[in-house]
Amino acid sequence: MDFLRPASWEEALAAKAEHPTAVPIAGGTDVMVEINFDHRRPEYLLDLNRIGDLCEWEVGEDTVRLGASVPYTRIMEHLRPELPGLALASHTVASPQIRNRGGVGGNLGTASPAGDAHPALLAAGAEVEAESVRGSRLIPIDEFYTGVKRNALAADELIRAVHIKKADGPQQYSKVGTRNAMVIAVCAFGLALHPSSRTVRTGIGSAAPTPVRAKAAEEFLNAALEEGGFWDNGKIVTPSVAKQFADLCAAACNPIDDVRGTASYRRHAVGVMARRTLTWTWESYRGTAARTEGVA
Amino acid sequence: MRVNFTVNGRRQEADDVWEGESLLYVLRERLGLPGSKNACEQGECGSCTVRLDGVPVCSCLVAAGQVEGREVVTVEGLADYAKQRAEHGGCATGACGTSGTSLEDARPGVPPDEAWGRAAKGQDSQTGEGTGSSPHAALAPIQQAFIDAGAVQCGFCTPGLLVAADEMLERNPNPTDADIREALSGNLCRCTGYEKIMDAVRLAAARQGEAV
């Protein structure tokens, strides 16, 4: 095994081009587990810790450019107003020690269906900034996950940052596990209201081979909210609409039975989380609307 | 490969390090610092918790090569670290933990070996558990509180809990019970059931408050 320690992003890209099998390591919270347990013996480890840019973020007009290695702890502390869904998701990651090291770039690189960040990214809307010596590209988050622990990166590409849409409305995140800390999701759900476009987006974790959106559920809810004038009148979402939304979210799952839960439990739980997060976010939206627009 | 870094204020050099080796392995097997415990090797239990540039991390998940040129504090150095902090008041504001301010930063221009002062001189970090009868035998307040509260049973989780709890008290001198539980949520204990550990951290916080 060789340990490559690029001092700059350009050096890292050059190293990845020269050694496409090199495994990038930043927080190490996935990679080191595999090495410790002898599940993986990469030819090259590509250490990204010396590249300071990866730990920085910029808040732009419409998006946050989040460096691939920004630890979850920082997201929770500094980006809650802009990225409320991701901040909530970050708080459910493992433990303080892990959150001090791990970041969204690693979650994307590993592309586990159970990665905690994915449902929040899908719901908010995001693009992955991937780069190689050949150039840089933005991969829409919907096209990023290609299979169980597979993603759209080419062999010579590294994740530099994630561009996440700043919240324009309430966002929520919910995760099922056996305890609050140190737990891999049985399943997870992210929901974001986008009042500026009058749309709702979702993200489902750990209930399909990849993280997925519940697109049929989104379309149904978008139409129902529009039809009922809900965005303007700020009325409570009717129970039948919430139930139909929940059922469609459950139907978007394609889960398996495993040690953490059965497929049918996962489907059921996703439906429950969908209904709850819709209620929480909509109540929050109504509260905001009542204050700013005087709607009762 | 060779790895140079600072452990408990002292520069260390580890040779013949395997590229896939963890910081935990280097500390325990190459530098003779067995205080950080090796249990789950997957970041679940927190018994290997150390501070890397001030930040609590699981040393089993840090590749040895990643610590080149950086500063590590283990449980063996906790007493001196706490003493240093008390003397310089560097972290009383709570900024240090998150910004990663090192001891070196606390006294600009002074190399770590000196910055650690006389208290550290007597310590031979090669001997590991630097308490006992060595000249700097003082315990960190959190260590004393664990003893006084009876929070140590088999002792295997204790080093990680001490490092995590000490860092929390540095950031947050007046923690609520929820704050303590959250800060220690990455540290598993299979003996005492956590209540004595909660007592110990509350005790350390109270004593810290009295001292100010």
Task: Write a concise synopsis of the structure shown.
Chain A is of the alpha+beta class and 296 residues long. Chain A has eleven helices and 13 strands. In chain B, strands 2-1-5-3-4 form a five-stranded mixed sheet, sandwiched between helices.
Account of the 3D structure:
The complex is a heterodimer of chains A (296) and B (212). With 296 residues, chain A is of the alpha+beta class. Chain A has a domain at 171-293: Enolase-like, domain 1 (2-Layer Sandwich). Chain A contains eleven helices and 13 strands. Chain A is globular and about 60 Å long. The N and C termini of chain A lie far apart (65 Å). Chain B has a domain at 77-99 and 137-211: [2Fe-2S]-binding domain (DNA polymerase, domain 1, Orthogonal Bundle). A five-stranded mixed beta sheet of chain B has the order 2-1-5-3-4, with helices on both faces. The chains are: A alpha+beta (296), B alpha+beta (212). The interface between A and B is medium-sized, with 31 and 30 residues.
SSE layout and pairing:
The complex is a heterodimer of chains A (296) and B (212).
Chain A: E1 2-4, H1 9-18, E2 23-25, H2 31-36, E3 44-47, E4 57-59, E5 63-67, H3 72-78, H4 84-91, H5 96-99, H6 104-110, H7 117-124, E6 126-132, E7 135-140, E8 145-147, E9 150-151, E10 158-165, E11 171-176, E12 187-194, E13 199-205, H8 215-227, H9 230-233, H10 239-251, H11 263-293
Parallel strand pairs in A: 1-3, 2-3
Antiparallel strand pairs in A: 4-5, 5-10, 6-7, 6-10, 8-9, 11-12, 12-13
Helix pairs in contact in A: 3-4, 4-7, 8-10, 10-11
Chain B: E1 3-7, E2 10-14, H1 23-30, E3 49-52, E4 55-58, E5 71-73, H2 78-88, H3 96-99, H4 103-106, H5 112-115, H6 117-121, H7 141-148, H8 158-171, H9 177-183, H10 195-211
Parallel strand pairs in B: 1-5
Antiparallel strand pairs in B: 1-2, 3-4, 3-5
